[in-house]
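Why does this matter for the project? Reviewers at the last site visit asked to see concrete outputs rather than summary tables. In response, this paragraph embeds two records directly. Each consists of the residue sequence and, immediately after it, the corresponding structure tokens. Nothing has been edited or filtered.
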Amino acid sequence: MTAITSTPASGSAGLAAFAAELRPEQVPEPVWRRAEELLLDWFGAALAGKGARPVKSIAAWAEAMGPAGGAAELLISRRRSSPLFAAMVNAAASHVAEQDDVHNGAVFHPGTVVFPAALAAAQALRRSGAELLLAAIAGYEAGIRAGESLGRSHYRVFHTTGTVGGIAAAVAVGRLLRLNPEQMNHAIGSAGTQAAGLWEFLRTAADSKPLHAAHAAASGLSAAYLARDGFRGATQILEGPQGMAAGMSSDADAGRLCDRLGERWALLETSFKYHASCRHTHPAADALLQLMREHGLGADDIVRVNARVHVAALEVLGVVGRPQSVHQAKFSMGTVLGLIACHGAAGITEFERALDDDAVGDFAAKVTMEADAEVEAAYPQRWIGKVEVNTRDGRRLTCKVEQPKGDPGNTLSRAELEAKALRLAAFGGAAGPEETRLALANLWKIRGAAVVGSLLPGART
């Protein structure tokens, strides 16, 4: 591995220079391996989205807009389209099941925007598997740092995956287009000026969340292609006086944008999602599951659960009262803990039955949330889980989980990632068990592929 010298530029230009000039030999082997795992994990999440109504709407719209064929693969239908529409559909599909990866510090889902855009461009440009992975690595590093730089205030109103997701996608596609640093910065500028995504959708069970990912992947891809052809974007879109930080944050820190680029690999800090719900629910879910197992409790043994959480969890989850849709249920702490208590899991199949499950609804009524000073102090770098449980026989029990399942220190093995992908594919019906296993085997070897082809057999025009 060759050491990376410090990038002389700072801010948006520094991110652009790092991404454009990153060489394969500068990337440590663990980063390459984690990129493979993140790609496989994203693939499973995308297959799970096939039957979701919002994804069907976006896919039908993309098909109506055309073209009837193209170089890029739509995973849920095995049709082909332009890179733009493939990126949109695959991004929406991979975000709707709430099983895509997340970076805790940035509170950002990088895989759902980086891989759809990068895969579409790689297939259209006939790039190698190694180039696809290197592009994704660059996209993760840029997008995560952009999210971190915007601070916690940004996330109170803006869905970070929708806002900085376009920048991450632009960088990944820019790598595949082989943009130079100046062009890459123009791509970042054009992506940033299109940044969008507001949390208001949660209040009324709107379909906006997968649309955020779809728009970010597509706008980032567009920004990169435009930059290749000379289109100029703002050169300080993140840190400028009228840029994203100025308009979308009150605690931004531009110093985070280029902090230890090439030394600290933020991609390695990305977490896999074990439960099929908003990540803010996972720490408490793990804590409740551990407590119930340790004390041999059933759902009927519990009369009250108090989840002690960070403030951002209250801001995101607190707007959901009684869930009106399956997707909104994934943002309900009561529903998630109800599934854990009643069924021992909050997976994708459990959520499909949650709204009609009286036992889950009854348990949800026992759940409260409260801000906790220790949990808040650790957030967002660490997402600690704490629960307090009152039992029917008068006991008060507590449990604390330092690292939820899926975090880097408590990660999923490759075997667990394969099992998760197989479950998600079966749920969505996008691929059968044998073809999914074949696709997974090929994904583990994609770094050696001379050209990135279809991930699933039988793609048709």
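We now turn to the second protein, recorded in exactly the same manner.
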Amino acid sequence: MARIGVIGAGYVGLTTAACFARLGHTVVCADVDEAKVAALGRAEIGAHEPGLGELVAEGLGAGRLRFVLGNAEALSDVDFVFLCVPTPTGPDGAADLSAVHAVLREARDAVRPDCVLVIKSTVPAGTTERVAGLVGRSDVRVVSNPEFLREGHAVDDFLRPQRVVVGSEAEEAARRVVALYAGTGAPALVTSSASAELVKYASNCFLAMKLSYVNSLAELCERVGADIGDVTEGMRLDDRIGASFLEPGPGWGGSCFPKDTRALLSTAEEAHVDFPLLRATIGTNGHQAHRVVGMVRDAVGGSLAGVRLGLLGLTFKAGTDDLRDSPALAVAALLAEEGAWLTGYDPCVSADCGPVRVLDSAEAAAAGADGLVVLTEWPEFAELDWPNLAAAMTAPVIVDTRNLLPVEKVAEAGFHLVSLGRPTAPR
């Protein structure tokens, strides 16, 4: 088994460290946040990610996992160093690689001979080959190994991945990285570093395209009297299309899709490649929040000024506590701009979010409201006590942007229900 250093104890770094420890490797995970390092040493992960806390506790208890402040221990006396540092969107839309560069410069004098530096952070095509010069050592290789972790499913995605992608111009180093995942049984693709880097962007941007496509399709369904549920069900039966990412919603967000679409578009522009499909994908997503607000405005009578709305769901998707680039919050901001008063409930959010006063239950968010808006697809929202909610509201109106709710039960409770891409019953 290998000795592994992980730089960065964020979402990707922590999952990488804990899961490699589960696979039997010895892992030291470094971060610059003293409070976070201390909490992780007590197996307090501070994030909603099923199974991750248990894996951290297991690794600590077995002595295969340690957390340290500063990078020195995670760079020295290890066989592999995984860079799991942020690559946020820069002012020009391109990925900001300053954290990657800083670690590689630090690694130049710290790593042992034959150590492999693995870039797990999402970086533009060509980065791995270009930044190898920052290390400047012929006895140290830099390899790309992009992550494909879904929030809310990260542990399962790491330990039972659909594929492991490793890119390097040094095949021996790439094969050594592949061997670290032997316990997962996953198929491996070994390719050039640029190809491996592009796999990550290509995958995320394709999924974003599917979501933007189905949101536009839902709008068309509303105009022509079709049902988006029936349309997408017919699409899913074609195995060339696949079943996933065909649910309409208030838009896509989170920590990956927004920055990755912008970064890939920036890469294409830098390479003088016109990519109108990706540009349209981003533009369509920007339009979606405004479209949802228009549906809410129409549902409550034509004006949002002084209207009390209860928002169900604030995170960017169910199964996570992540609010980054949440389409729910984008919708909330627009509703507030038009004068709406907002209360909200989310199973993983306790603090107020911008203009949204966060309450401790869906019932509390609904009390006295002129309408409800479902913004995140938490399964428990489909099981609410609809007659009780209707009785508590000033006006029983629901805009379901996730097509999550049981239509017949909601209607029987007296609600006027508006869904994306579905015919709306007259009041």
